[in-house]
Amino acid sequence: MKTRSLTQFYQDIPKLDLHYHLLGGVKLSTMQALANKYQVPLSEEDAKSYYRQYQIPGAKRKGGIEALTFLYRIMREPVDYQTVVMEVAEAAKASGLRYIETFWNPSDSAISYDILHPALVEAADLAEQTFGVIIRYIPSINRETSPEIAVEMIEEVIQHPHPYVLGVGIDYKEQNAPVENFWKTYRLAELNGLKKTAHCSEFGLHWRNVETGIELIGCDRIDHGYSIVDNPELMHKYALSGVPFTVIPSNTYFLMQWPNNTEWQQKQPIRMMAKAGLNIIPCTDDWYIHDTDSANCYRVMVEELGFDLDAIRQMIENSIDAAWVSEQQKLTWKKEWLAEFDHLRAQLIEEPMIDASLYTPYQKLSQ
What we know:
This protein is of the alpha/beta class.
């Protein structure tokens, strides 16, 4: 008997999130508690201004980067980070999320890496034991600081190696800090066996930032990368190469660019990336800051951006392939999780109705 609703399906299917900022998982109540703990002034109005779900049209608005900057300032003890990791894992389990690779910025933290790193490892172990959610870490460059600070950061990471620390990333405002400024940090990371990813062409910036991230820096993945649609030839090249692009269906820039929902649906570059055959991987970015979760991420991909469930299954397989885990682990997850996806799909009361005007087929290209 078929009894499963689409809402339940989005929640239950096994999912991975390879583009998620750890402090983006701080609840409003947790932010307020941390501010109170360290006696940092924070009115309820100011706190809510960081969170999309509480923002009032026309009111003063703060974005995700401002939220992360504030949180790094008020998280002053390892236990603060451990609390957040556990809250993230609990929310992940409720959303059907099994595996997370999460960014955090060591150079922004008030706690030295040698002290905070073991606490994060301990929290990841406890999260897996308690909730069955695997959390791994990607120390990330704050590109609004100097390349020299970034080098100092990666040298600290290299001095304290651990299998839970998988690679290096770069985030924050890209406009005046292209990824090539930080080539030395990436070179050191590569020489020490770390993977590489980078936020590129996130805010409508030029496609050459993606090209630089792949061709010059040698990134294993690209985070965002939407402006690649402005260069069809290069987009086709990367579709053939299979380089993964972690895309965010709740991306703030595009929601602000096209506040009319219908226009946003039609113009969202994720759909064009899929049609070109790019290896796209839906991710959440910041759960509480963006008022989303992993289940909602996949709901948007289907109900707002027009993908069918075959495409969703392919994207989950893409996520497994792009995860920075062993090949044996990937094979195990593909066998178990994709079979689970098929089983859950077979229980659906009905498949989603795809609007032909929105429908975006996805075809995985090969050379």
